[in-house]
Write a structure and sequence with these properties.
Strand order of the largest sheet of chain A: 3-2-1-4-11-10-5-6-9-7-8
Largest sheet of chain A: 11 strands, mixed
Order of helices and strands of chain A: EHEHHEHHEHEEHEHEHEHHEEHH
Oligomer: homodimer
CATH topology of the largest domain in chain A: Isopropylmalate Dehydrogenase
Strand content of chain A: 15-25%
Shape of chain A: globular
Helix content of chain A: 40-55%
Chain lengths: ~350, ~350
């Protein structure tokens, strides 16, 4: 494990950029003192902000961008017109070998499109996927695709399973990650054709993973498996449904403790325990959409996060680079291609 | 509003049948003293159980079934081989006019298939959908389809929107329900073709509803609209993801209060408020999957619910029958057909 030297940051992406990007980099710098940053954005604004953080300033290079991609830009538009944007130049830094990874809190569609175009997908990978780590009853699970691909075929889903398992093992640190395909029931006959086909391929065991078959929506929070694979439409909606429910519970809880003086006192007594709980489920701790399958480390931060959340997204990028995640995916796909060449044609995807 | 006289109950469906069905009917009987029941199941077991509830016994007719459909039976198998099953005979009671509605905690797929075959879909409705009421920040929302149709076209989604809006208005009691289509983003360009097409039809305003366009997964718990429409695959996974997250939070909360003697004391002080919260989000209160679009009132109870939950499912059936829900759907579809006949061809579905 070699800690990467440089991470490029899209300093102008997100609701509160560049402030939270710089403040987040400062937190990340304390956690990973050997990492330096390329901050891409408005040089005047960045210079002012960096004055507050002299140690970060000494470990950062500022690169000037001319534009910023907005939340409303369509991916194709961002690709064509955003060549001098902070997002594009930060991704270019990875392509040029100046940085080991990039983090952006900007437009997700634009980030995926630019990353795919500039960095290309890994050899053998048909489509990249967006993955996140979620808190579960048992610990943490990896969930993908979260919206990169509205429609997926069986091959996409199988590749997502392979990438998700490698991410869980090498980045999250789960030794033998179990993998499941999200469906409306756990029987093999349920769901779309693509799902049933992917299920068959994964059951056939060509990929060395602990494949457990179909899992259901409630298994996400239960942590029944370590990696849950689905298409980007379902994944995006399920993830947001979970986030919304978590917020609903937090709001209900706050209102509950405010109901009476006695319940307020109860809150004060239970506060240390409640703070530990809040920390356990803090969405900022899980902030980071990993763009798996592109030739480069690309992490999407939530657009509305704060410095603490942005620092966690940087942490994911540092870990992916440090563990050579992309090399491992590449090696696995190559190994599988060789095995597959020896298999009868029917077993091929 | 005329309270229905008779509700048929599949007394052998669900994890703890017939016990919780009979105990649930007893609770429902107290809430709706004018309702009688047809209990379909094993007559010996039912006779023994009814001895405990003399008032319910005096308001119940027992019908003997020969078999029960298991949770693992496939719908086609249940249809062919289950003609003397408790589920089938309970649905037959609705078709024969003996009961105003039916409630079953049995196999969902079998229930939908038998209900469609025996009762038929309402004239003009292409496919029935499964709907539920969910707690939200703002109150309650109606969510459908929850799994009846793994794949849906634009016409299905539009009809679900119409039925969901009528359910929200006449059964839940929301005067001018707002309606949204679940998607991965709120812009009109997002999502599948079927979704975009349904969005156009609903925006065109042929149906008198407060249509708000696309909504996202987090809008489910936020209650941004009163009715959220999606296909059965996405709906099933989103619903279960929400249920799983709610359970995760409850478990985390219990563990939190057990952390120390002081936090236990805090719990004791806040208990009345916490109990009110538990009641607010109690899944048993929302137990009931309404099978909208069949010619008859059919409600699916969760298989693992208790008597309190089953009584709530009965309550939904009573309300749907009392408010003439199916007549309202039928009238709305007829009205629309007439309007549509006057429209240029291009505007048709």
């Amino acid at each position: 494990m070699v800690t990467p030297k440089v991470i490029a940051l899209d300093a102008m992406g997100g609701d509160r950029a560049p402030e939270i990007v710089v403040a987040g980099a400062n937190i990340a710098r304390d956690r990973h003192p050997e990492v330096c940053f390329i901050l891409v954005g408005d040089p005047t604004k960045l210079a002012t902000l960096l004055k507050r953080f002299p140690r970060l300033a000494s470990a950062s290079e500022v690169r000037a961008s001319e534009t910023a991609i907005s939340a409303h830009d369509r991916p194709a538009q961002a690709l064509r017109q955003g060549r001098r944007s902070s997002m594009r130049l930060a991704i270019d830094a990875v392509r040029n070998g100046d940085a080991a990874g990039v983090v952006s809190a900007g437009n997700t569609g634009a980030l995926m499109a630019i990353a795919k175009t500039v960095l290309k997908t890994l050899p053998g990978i048909k489509r990249p996927a967006l993955a996140a780590v979620l808190p579960t009853v048992r610990g943490e699970s990896v969930f993908l695709d979260l919206g990169a691909n509205v429609e997926c075929d069986a091959e996409n889903l199988v590749q997502f399973a392979v990438m998700g398992a490698l991410f869980a093992r090498h980045v999250v640190g789960i030794r033998e990650p179990s993998v499941g395909l999200l469906n409306v029931g756990s029987e093999d006959v349920k769901g779309h054709d693509e799902l049933r086909q992917a299920n068959e391929i994964l059951h056939a065991g060509e990929f060395p993973m602990d494949y457990r078959g179909f899992v259901e929506g409630n298994d996400l929070a239960a942590g029944r498996v370590d990696v849950i694979v689905t298409d980007g439409f379902t994944g995006n909606i399920a993830l947001k449904a979970i986030e919304g429910t978590a917020r609903l519970y937090s709001e209900f809880m706050r209102a509950t403790f405010r109901r009476s003086i006695v319940s307020k006192l109860g809150y004060l007594l239970a506060r240390p325990a409640l703070n530990a709980l809040r920390n356990r489920v803090d969405p900022r701790r899980y902030n980071g959409g990993m763009c798996l399958g592109v030739s480069g480390v690309v992490v999407k931060s939530h657009g509305a996060t704060d410095a603490f959340g942005f620092a966690n997204a940087i942490g994911f990028a540092v870990d992916m680079a440090a563990h050579g995640f992309n090399d491992r995916v590449h090696a696995e796909i190559e190994r599988w291609k060789e095995t597959r060449a020896e298999l009868p044609k029917a077993a091929a995807l």
